[in-house]
Each structure stands twice: as C-alpha cells, then as structure tokens.
Write a structure and sequence with these properties.
elongated; 434 Repressor (Amino-terminal Domain); 4 helices; mainly alpha
Length: 73
Amino acid sequence: MKKLFDKKLDILMRLLDISNTELARAIFIDPSYISRLRTGKRKLPKSKKTFTQWQTSLLNKQVNVEKEKFYPI
C-alpha cells in the first residue's frame, strides 16, 4: 500500500477538487509537503494517528463543500 499512497492521494484530491494548499490548511501542514507526498518524493507518515487525522480533515472538507451546494448561506 505504501507504494501506491502517492497515486491514491493524488487521485482522491483530484476527484474531490482539493488543492495542496486547501488540504494543507485543513490539516495544518505546509503545502509543499502535500506536493511531495503526491509526487512520491516524501513517504507516507508513520503515525497512524496523523494519517487518520489527514483523512478525516480531507473528507470533512468535501462534506462541507457538498453541503454548501445544497444549503447555500
């Protein structure tokens, strides 16, 4: 799985239409780190807790975007 992380992250972010900057802001890290993860220049985080927090932040962002489409303020 580790070898496919970069590809999966890239595909997921493209599908959800989320930029490196948007994800980085949501999970409080540098956008260049996201870029390096997506291109395979950086390895998957070793901490499961960190990875789970990232996943949650990414999905929450998309849920909020979808909610705004149906319930505009």
